[in-house]
Amino acid sequence: MRVANPEFLTKFVDELEGQPEHAEIAAAVEAWLNAVREIDVRTWGALAEAFDDRLSATIAFSLGRKHRLMAEFDLADSFVLVKWVGRRA
């Protein structure tokens, strides 16, 4: 699956440079990007067709102990858009 805006995450990680959690977040972001890129879009594409090409979802992911990432998955078009990343409230 294609990540539409990976530079958004790169910028976030770069802004944490020098912070104690930088290494933890950088590793979590890299793992998340790799996992998303490995999603088999053929499987999701068939599911999207069954739902008349309207299958999408916004999902929150934990990045370490204090940070969260929210991304919208568009399964019909096989892409992910990172909507927000930052500290948990």
List the helices and strands and how they pair.
Layout: E1 2-3, H1 6-15, H2 22-37, H3 41-50, E2 56-63, E3 67-74, E4 79-87
Put the structure in a nutshell:
The protein has 89 residues and is of the alpha+beta class.
Record keyword descriptors for this entry:
89 residues; alpha+beta; 3 helices; 4 strands
Q: What can you tell me about this protein's structure?
A:
With 89 residues, this protein is an alpha+beta fold. The chain has one domain. The chain has three helices and four strands. It has a four-stranded mixed sheet with strand order 1-4-3-2. Strand 2 and strand 3 form a beta hairpin. Helix 1 packs antiparallel against helix 2. It is elongated and about 45 Å long. The termini are far apart.
What's the shape? elongated
Q: SS-based structural class?
A: alpha+beta
Spatial gap, N to C terminus: 29 Å
Q: State the strand order across the main sheet.
A: 1-4-3-2
Count of DSSP strands? 4
Share of residues in strands = 25-35%
Model regions low in confidence, pLDDT < 50 over at least 5 residues = none
- Main sheet, how many strands, which sense, barrel? 4 strands, mixed
Task: Estimate the mean pLDDT confidence.
Answer: 88
| Number of alpha- plus pi-helical segments | 3
Number of domains: 1
In which range does the helix fraction lie?
40-55%
| Rounded radius of gyration (Å) | 14 Å
In N-to-C order, the SSE pattern is EHHHEEE
